[in-house]
Amino acid sequence: MTCPPTDPRIGAELPQLPHILSGIVAAIGLTDAALHIELRLHMRRWHILDIGVRPGSGLVAHAAAAHTGVDPRMVHLAASIGRPLHPAAVTAARGRHAATCIACCYVAPQRRTDITLLRHSELADQLYGSDDVLGWHLNAAETDDRLYRPDAGISVGIGAPDRPTALARLRSLVEPFDFTTQTRDDTKLLSPNERTPVLTLHHLALTTADQAKAAPFYDAVFGILGYSRGYTSDRLCTWGGPGPELLLYIVEGDDAAPHTHGRPGWQHGAFSVDDRATVDAVHTAVLDGGWTVVHGGRGASARNVPVAPHYAVFQK
Q1: What is the rounded CA–CA span in Å between residue 210 and residue 197?
Q2: What gap in Å lies between CA 224 and CA 288, rounded to an integer?
Q3: What is the pLDDT of residues 291-312, one digit of tens each?
């Protein structure tokens, strides 16, 4: 875990949070308090998992104070005794660092015997002597009891001018001591030449002879999948979401006949979703819109294709 997040999919949806958090505060009816709220981002939508009327634990308070200049523990304490901080004092506060990073660092099972308090006294000295370290805590245990497998690890908070610098600084401190921010068992650090490239589909461009008729179909179906309409003109519509961007162009040239299944070129595209309810929702949206379900859908599994059995709906 890193905070702030480095995954671009999370960063792209952060602008939604002020509105969502304001709604949470209004719904609870609190005027002065510190809240610890856990959310999950799924299909470009934030889902509330937990709300606690308390400051965050671990190094969350340290990171918040370093970034904003306001210690949420003091906010909570002041409110609990009936002397809440004045809003002007909160807005006027300034943090010491423009960005902070909290990372939970892990150790592969085969390396756990190397994680001892004695060996890591040098790491402790480095952490204590660094002005940009907001705090840290180490979980280490030495025992021969095979029934007891301690989760060796370390959490470190770093302050820096920006997120990449904070994360790079943290890794430079912990990785020489067998800790890593990666969760896989192999903790070997790979050079850029050794890394396996990961290819993702960037966008999908389609054409239509009737944009006014086709665009509502994609609004309905892709809206269920977490997409929303982006750019719109008389020749192009786009949709952005959790997967590749979708572009819908007006067909150019004399060949404006609809593409039929089996002709050279496009065959079909498929999106993977987390549950059957989403498949059923797409199926319903297609029928409600008057479009055609080719096969599959509610209660049917697509087993007539040479891949693992799956629950799907195909439409056009």
Answers
A1: 39
A2: 13
A3: 777 665 544 444 333 444 556 6
- Cα 91 from Cα 75, distance rounded (Å): 13
Cα(90)–Cα(68) distance, integer angstroms: 9
What value does the mean pLDDT take over residues 262-278?
Answer: 71
List C-alpha distances in Å: 178 to 62, 93, 132, 150, 279: 25, 38, 21, 16, 44
Average pLDDT, the chain: 75
SS (H, E, C) the chain: CEECCCCHHHHCCHHHHHHHHHHHHHHHCCCCCCCEEEEEEECCEEEEEEEECCCCCCCHHHHHHHHHCCCHHHHHHHHHCCCCCCHHHHHHCCCCCCEEEEEEEECCHHHHHHCCCCCCHHHHHHHHCCCCEEEEEEECCCCCCCCCCCCCEEEEEEEECCHHHHHHHHHHHHHHHCCECCCCCCCCCCCCCCCCCCCCCCEEEEEECCHHHHHHHHHHHHHHCCCEEEEECCCEEEEECCCCEEEEEECCCCCCCCCCCCCCCCCCCCCCCCCHHHHHHHHHHHHHCCCCEEEEEEEEEECCCCCCCEEEEEEC
| The length of the chain, given as a count of residues | 316
The pair of three-digit structure tokens given for residue 221, joined into one six-digit string: 């179906």
- In the predicted structure, residue 135 carries a pLDDT above the cut 70: yes
β-bridge partners, 240: 228
Residue with tokens 């949709």: 239
Residue 259 has pLDDT above 70, yes or no: no
Tell me if 310 sits within 8 A of 273, measured CB to CB: no
CB neighbour list of residue 40: distance below 8 Å, 6 or more residues apart: 46, 47, 49
**pTM recorded for the entire structure:** 0.48
Residue with token string 């702030």: 4
Q: Are 90 and 76 in contact (CB under 8 A)?
A: no
Strands 203-208 and 245-250: parallel
- As a whole number of angstroms, the distance between CA 235 and CA 83 comes to 59
At residue 147, the pLDDT reads 53
